[in-house]
Specification:
Layout (H helix, E strand, L loop, with lengths): L31 H22 L5 H22 L11 H24 L2 H8 L2 H12 L7 H17 L2 H4 L10 H28 L5 H22 L9 H27 L2 H8 L1 H13 L6 H33 L1
Helix pairs in contact: 1-10, 1-11, 1-12, 2-3, 2-9, 2-10, 3-4, 3-8, 3-9, 4-8, 4-12, 4-13, 5-6, 5-8, 5-13, 6-13, 11-13
């Protein structure tokens, strides 16, 4: 196996709330890592907006086309860095599993965005950090504190406020994008995407730092392209964009995805995961802003309450991890 060049670490496929610690470097100036994180938020939020704005194209097709361009863009980087394209021996099954989970996460994410309000879908997907703590306790035997169940409850309450199931809120519910059935389907897809995103992070933690970051993206892009395009062909929803603008938007979506991942990686190389995770919650705020400005949708009080609960839970997880890692560093220094 050819080792990756210095400076690259294995981090997860970056979507809302997806934070993983990498080796820190001293920044040229204070705050550079957080600026990278802000750019990552901006890129991913615009990507989600474009997925919502584009019409007449199935979410699976958007996923497949994004993966195609991402696969093309990352392949030269892998060649340049002389990375073994098969991955390290003993980790290839995990690398393949990471690709499947990452691809499913993206497909469910895009489907959720098309089925429900942009901000609601973003909030639910951002609940994934609390599930990472639960899965890390189950599969990686990491310690679970007394605060973790509280953060989990906060996030689940937020998801319920956004979903507003009829058996709790009654049958006369207003404020949905099209109809209640689509809203529930979108909620289920967003929640499943958050779960898959959490499992993907567990797999990446299990792989450690032996897998090159861009190889991880390349695998997920290749598998996502095959799964998405196969699925859209089976359900016979394949349709090329009718106008040049839609085709350009599809390419921009791919570029924004790669740019967002790159900025997030750079942020995590020079800044702690805790502060970056807190900055990433700005993506939820941006989703509400884009929804109001470009989609003419005002948020309901239920959505705002759900967003507050979810961000409280995920921010609590981030602050707790930040505090724990800081204490460990001080203890090691002493």
């Amino acid at each position: 196996m050819i080792l990756p060049r210095e400076g690259f670490q294995s981090v997860p496929w970056s979507q809302p709330g997806y934070i993983h610690e990498v080796t820190e470097k001293k920044p040229k100036w204070v705050g550079l890592g957080l600026c990278y994180a802000l750019f990552s938020c901006l890129f991913f939020s615009i990507l989600s907006l474009l997925v919502k704005k584009i019409e007449g194209i199935h979410s699976l097709e958007i996923s497949g086309i994004r993966c195609l361009f991402q696969w093309i863009f990352t392949f030269p980087i892998i060649i340049y860095n002389e990375v073994d394209i098969l991955g390290p021996k003993g980790l290839r099954l995990l690398l393949f599993l990471r690709g499947i989970l990452g691809a499913i996460t993206m497909m469910l994410l895009f489907y959720a965005i098309q089925q429900m309000h942009l901000a609601d879908a973003t909030v639910i997907i951002f609940s994934n950090p609390v599930f990472v703590s639960v899965f890390a306790w189950i599969f990686l035997k990491e310690k679970c504190t007394l605060l973790d169940p509280i953060f989990l409850v906060f996030s689940l309450v937020g998801v319920i406020l956004i979903a507003r199931p009829q058996f709790l809120f009654g049958t006369h519910i207003s404020g949905f994008e099209s109809d209640y059935k689509n809203h529930i389907k979108g909620t289920a897809a967003a929640f499943a995407s958050a779960i898959c995103m959490s499992l993907t992070l567990i797999v990446i933690r299990k792989m450690g730092k032996s897998v090159h970051y861009f190889l991880s993206i390349w695998y997920y892009s290749m598998i996502g392209m095959v799964l998405s395009l196969s699925a859209v062909s089976i359900i016979q929803e394949w349709s090329l964009p009718l106008c040049g603008m839609d085709r350009a938007i599809l390419i921009v979506i791919s570029i924004l995805g790669i740019g967002g991942q790159t900025f997030l990686t750079k942020a995590l190389q020079i800044e702690k995961a805790g502060p970056v995770a807190l900055i990433k919650t700005i993506e939820v705020v941006l989703a509400f802003i884009w929804q109001y400005l470009f989609l003419n949708r005002s948020p309901t009080w239920w959505s705002l309450g759900g967003a507050l609960c979810v961000t409280s839970g995920t921010s609590g997880v981030a602050i707790q991890k930040w505090y724990t890692s800081t204490r460990k560093e001080k203890k090691n220094q002493n």
